[in-house]
Amino acid sequence: xxxxxxxxxxxxxxxxxxxxxxxxxxxxxxxxxxxxxxxxxxxxxxxxxxxxxxxxxxxxxxxxxxxxxxxxxxxxxxxxxxxxxxxxxxxxxxxxxxxxxxxxxxxxxxxxxxxxxxxxxxxxxxxxxxxxx
Length: 133
Prior knowledge:
The protein is α/β, with parallel strands linked by helices and about 130 residues long. The chain is about 25% helix and about 20% strand. It has a five-stranded parallel β-sheet, sandwiched between helices. β4 (about 90-95), α3 and β5 form a beta-alpha-beta unit. α2 (about 80-90) crosses α3 (about 100-110). It is globular and about 40 Å long. The two termini are about 25 Å apart.
């Protein structure tokens, strides 16, 4: 993907058990994850990034309609260690509040945005590198 894109936005779409954990407060639709990723992409393009790709890792298989979107790629690894490593190599990351995301940011020095139901992505300054793990 690095040969194809100048900048990569990694998305950790934690679904599975998050549907019921804390009454689903951190369970987000595929559409929400795609919206946040695309907003991030638009902001990065405005900042001068020429070719931005999106990689989504999840504990669920995305619906077929989501797998055909240009510049959006889904990890098919089915191995959390591959996904965590892949996401730590991205330029930006977004996902729910979870230790997986903290580690991605801390280890890879990847600016991260924790998403919540009311998250609106407006600036790259919303993304921060986790300083502790």
